[in-house]
Design a protein that fits this description.
By secondary structure, the chain is an alpha/beta fold. It has two domains: about 10-125, Enolase-like, N-terminal domain (Enolase-like, domain 1); about 130-355, Alpha-Beta Barrel (TIM Barrel). It has helices at about 60-75, 80-90, 100-120, 125-130, 150-160, 175-190, 205-215, 235-245, 255-265, 275-280, 280-295, 305-310, 355-360; strands spanning about 10-25, 30-45, 50-55, 135-140, 165-170, 195-200, 225, 250, 270, 320-325, 335-340, 340-345.
Length: about 375
């Protein structure tokens, strides 16, 4: 891979909070708007790399911004070389920990660095990594939260229509099994049996409850059970994966590729879905994809559809892209959706740029 010669000049990180079309109501909380941290990586050569983070909580910005600034200051005037920076940054965090906010900050800078390099090469990131642009199969994750089941028929139909989707994500884990069954039935009645239903429990069950609930739902023809229990209960996930027929999906909370490796070694998942800000950005994803590929485990994405779509084009066991439009309000040109696929555009870098008028409007 021929890396253009770029050197880091400075980094700007800005918090914004954008409105959500449909509020997020799940076992981990309720959100009516969504915080983002926009990162601009400036080089002495005039190329600017962009990335963003989705830290869930608005107050996270007060901790992440200084981390991003400190890491950028330590790399000032050094070559923009993501693998070197990833190794150096991870090494610098041994004493304070390589999970949580620290790795999230590393990931944000890593994504911006890869964007800058691909732009300097005049190639989309997917092409810069040795692949091609084009479509990525996606499911719509923009709704079907733990909201009244009576609203599900209209909402499910609208979600399919947003991009010709053949797959949707449905949240489960209500207090009563009957209510989960009613939610599944309502969606099926609205969109038909051919639409795939990815089901997410958002870590809302204990292991005992998960064994009972997932066993009761195992014959519902669901596409996967995602995070029924706390993400770090690896022995529990191994038990679920052994005992259930429906595939178990895990991984949005893997902090770094080694955690993914450990989970696969334990037989804790049938599918994995790393999150860009936790796995280690583009560099972390590429390492994780090699592990999943060697193990033959299908690999999907979590959030960050624009950046993740490029990586799915170069991932050996690429599975499904999770699509949300949560960053669209601050993007100059969101990616196109057609026939249930997100299309990676033929634009240099990751293909994202900020709508500065919207950024000013939603500045925190």
């Amino acid at each position: 891979m021929n890396h253009p010669q770029l050197t880091l000049k400075s980094v700007r990180a800005r918090p914004v909070v954008v409105p959500l079309k449909r509020p997020v109501i799940s076992k981990v909380g309720q959100f009516h708007d969504w915080p983002l941290i926009l990162i601009d990586l400036y080089t002495h050569e005039g190329i600017v790399g962009h990335s963003y983070l989705e830290p869930y909580l608005k107050q996270s910005a007060r901790y992440l911004l200084p981390l991003i600034e400190d890491l950028a200051a330590a790399a000032r005037d050094q070559p923009v070389a993501p693998f070197d920076a990833y190794r150096r940054s991870i090494g610098s965090l041994h004493l304070v920990g390589r999970e949580g906010m620290t790795l999230i900050a590393v990931s944000g800078l890593d994504m911006a660095a890869w964007d800058a390099l691909a732009k300097a090469a005049g190639k989309p990131l997917a092409a810069y990594l040795g692949g091609t642009t084009g479509p990525v199969p996606a499911y719509n994750s923009n709704g079907l939260w733990l909201t009244p089941v009576g609203d599900f028929a209209a909402e499910a139909a609208a979600l399919v229509a947003e991009g010709g989707f053949s797959a949707l994500k449905l949240r489960l884990g209500r207090d009563r099994l009957a209510d989960d069954l009613a939610a599944i039935a309502a969606v099926r009645a609205a969109v038909g049996a051919e639409v795939k239903l990815m089901c997410d429990f958002n870590q809302g069950l204990s292991l005992g409850d998960a064994l009972v609930r997932c066993d009761a739902l195992d014959e519902q023809g669901l596409y996967w059970f995602e995070e029924p229990i706390a993400y770090d209960n690896i022995p529990g996930y191994a038990q679920l994966a052994r005992e259930l027929t429906t595939p178990v999906q895990l991984g949005e909370n893997f902090y770094g590729p080694r955690m993914l490796y450990q989970a696969l070694q334990a037989g804790a998942a049938d599918y994995v879905m790393p999150d860009m800000m936790r796995i280690g950005g583009v560099s972390g994803w590429l390492r994780a994809a090699a592990i999943a590929g060697a193990a033959g485990i299908p690999m999907s994405t979590h959030l960050y559809p624009e950046i993740a779509a490029h990586l799915m084009r170069v991932t050996e066991t690429a599975h499904w892209l999770e699509w949300q439009d949560w960053a669209d309000p601050i993007l100059e040109e969101p990616f196109a959706l057609k026939d249930g696929q997100l299309w990676v555009p033929d634009r240099p870098g990751q293909g994202i740029a900020w709508n500065e008028k919207a950024v000013a409007k939603f500045a925190q």
